[in-house]
UniProtKB/TrEMBL annotation:
InterPro entries: SMG8-like. Signal peptide: none annotated. One of its GO terms (biological process) is nuclear-transcribed mRNA catabolic process, nonsense-mediated decay. Involved in nonsense-mediated decay (NMD) of mRNAs containing premature stop codons. Belongs to the SMG8 family. The keyword Glycosyltransferase does not apply. The keyword Chloroplast does not apply. It comes from the Eukaryota. The lineage of its organism: Eukaryota, Metazoa, Ecdysozoa, Arthropoda, Hexapoda. Keywords: Nonsense-mediated mRNA decay. This is Nonsense-mediated mRNA decay factor SMG8.
Amino acid sequence: MLHTDSPNSLLPQFPSWSLVCLGSSCLYSHNLGLQETQHPGFLNSTAYLLPWDVTVRLEHHPRDRYWNTDKNKINLSPVQRGRKTKGFREFSVKIFIGVEYECPRGHRFMCSAPDKILTTANNGIVKENGNKVSNSDMPLYFPCPCSSASMMAQLMRIHVVTPKAPVHVTLNPMVQPDENGGPIFVTGFDTPIELTQSTYWILRLP
C-alpha cells in the first residue's frame, strides 16, 4: 500500500482501494433508507445515510440566464434563489454520506459520529446530519452492537450520493492505523478523486 512517504515512482503490489459507482442517485431514498436486497446485513435502524448540507459560493454573472456548461464556473439564472454576498451568490446543496462498519459476523451499521452509531426515530426519520462525520477523524474500529461480547467492527466502506447540481464533489481518503503516529496510507492519486453529479458511489477501504 502507498503512504505519504512512499517514493513517487513506487506502484502498489495489489489493489487496496476500490471505488464503485452503483448508478443514479435515485437508487437511494432517504425516506426508505438502504434496501435489504441491495445492501444486505445492516442492523435495524442503521441502514440510512446522513444528509449533509454544503454551502457553495458562486460567482454571479447578470448577463447569463442559465447554468454555464463549464462546470468550473456555475452561473445562476434569475429564477434561482440564493443568499447574495459581495459579488457572489451562495446556495446550499445536499450530499448524502455514510460511514459503514462491518464485524466478522457480517453485521453492518453506520456511524453518525466518531463515538456514536446512527439510529433513527420510531417513524424512520434520521434526525442527525453529516457534519460530525465530515469534520472528524473516524475510528478504524468500533464495538459492534450485535453481541454482548467484545466484537469489534472495522471501518469498511464510505457511501456518497452526489447532488444533481453541477458542482464538484471529491474524495481524498487517508488511513492512519496508529493514532499516535505512523504512516498515512493514501490512494496514490496526485489530486482528489472527482465524483460525477447525481450518482451513488461506494469507496471500499483497505
